[in-house]
Specification:
Distance between the termini: 42 Å
Largest sheet: 6 strands, parallel
Number of helices: 16
CATH superfamily: Metal-dependent hydrolases
CATH architecture: Alpha-Beta Barrel
Oligomer: single chain
Amino acid sequence: MASDHPGIARARDEALEVLKPTPAQLQRGLELHRDCLVFDAYGFAPRAAIDGAAMAQAEAEGASDAELNLLRQEMAMTRPALVAQEREEFLNAMKVAGVACIFQNAGEESSDPLVLMKRLAHFTYLGDMMRGGLARATLPEDIEAARAAGRHCLYLTGNGVPLAGHSTSMQADLGFVRLFFQLGIRMMHVTYNRRNLLGDGCAEAANGGLSDFGRAAVKEMNRLGVIVDVAHSGWRTSLEAAQASTKPMVASHTTCAGVHSHIRSKPDEVIRAICDTGGLVGICCIPDFLAGNGDIARLVDHIDYVVKKFGADHVAIGTDAAHESRYAAAENAKVKSRGRRRAPFASLWPEGALGGNWPRARPLAWTNWPLFTVAMVQRGYTDDQIRKILGGNILRVCKDVLVKS
C-alpha cells in the first residue's frame, strides 16, 4: 500500500505506529489483503475536490443555500468522471485501499424520493462515465466480475425507504421501494436517526419500535430483494425489523454495545436477532462510536466481540468513511465561509453523541484498509475468517437476499 500521496502516507504511518506489526505480520497481511475480495459494507467513494472558483462564482451570483449544497455535493461526487487529476486521485485511493466494491451511500438522510434521487443520479453518472476503472454493479455477480477484471465497482444503498408521504394507500407508497430497486438501490435504511413512518431512529429517546407500516416495508423489501438495514435505527426498531425479516438483514455500519454503549451501537439481543436472519453487523470506523482509543486496535476489538459471541460469518467492515482529495483544501479556500447554519433535522443528535470529525482520524483512514487486514492477522484470525470479514460475508448476504424464494 505504498503511496507518494502525503495524506495517505501520513495515515499509513500513524496506523503502523498503533499496530507495530512484525515484518512477517505486515507482509502476510498485505499479501492476504491483495488476494481477498474486499467489499466495504457501507461507505463512500473517494470524494473529489470542488471547483472553488465555480462555487465562488455561484455564491457571488446569489445562489441559495440549497443550490450551493447541491452544487458542492455534485462536484464532490462526479468530478472524478470529468477532471483528469480527480480521476487519478480517485483510482489511486481505490487501488491503495485494495477495495473491490463499496456499498455506496447513494441517498440522503430522507425518505423523500426527490431528495433520494439526487445522490443516486450522481453515482449512476459516475459509474456510467468512468468505465474501464469503475463499474456500477446491480447484481452480486457484477462485483465478482469487476474484481476479476481488475476494476472497482459501486453497489448502491439509499439512506432511507423512499415514501411519497401523500398517497392514499400503503401499497402506493411502497411502490417507490420497487421503483428505486429498479433504479439500482440494493439496500435501504429503515430509519435515519429520527422517527419516520416506519419506526424510531437511534436518536429518538422514545425507542418506540417498528410501526405496522414499517413491517409492511420490511416485507416488501424482502419480496423485492432489497437488504433491510437498521444501522441508524433505534434498538427496539432494529430488533423488531430483524424479527419481521424473512431474508438476511444488516446493521451495515455500527458497533457493539457490549464493548461500548452508544446510540449507534447494537446490544447483544439485537445482534443475535440480526444473525438469526443470516445477516451481519458491519463495524464502522468512527472513533467515538468505537470508544477507547478509537483506532484500528479498537475497530478489531468490536470485530472480535462479534466473532467470539456470534461467529465469523456475521461480521463485516462498513467504514462509513471516505478518502478526501488532496486538492480539497486549496479549492475550499477559494470559497467564503457562509457562517453558522442551523443543524438539519436528521442531524439532531443527543448532546455529545458524535464527538469530533471522524473522517479525519488518520489511523482509521479509508485508505488504511490493508492495515485492517494486518491487524486481524496480528489477532490470530485464520485466512478463511479474514476473507469472510473483508468481503465474503456481505457478498453472501447480497446473493441470499437477491435470490427469489
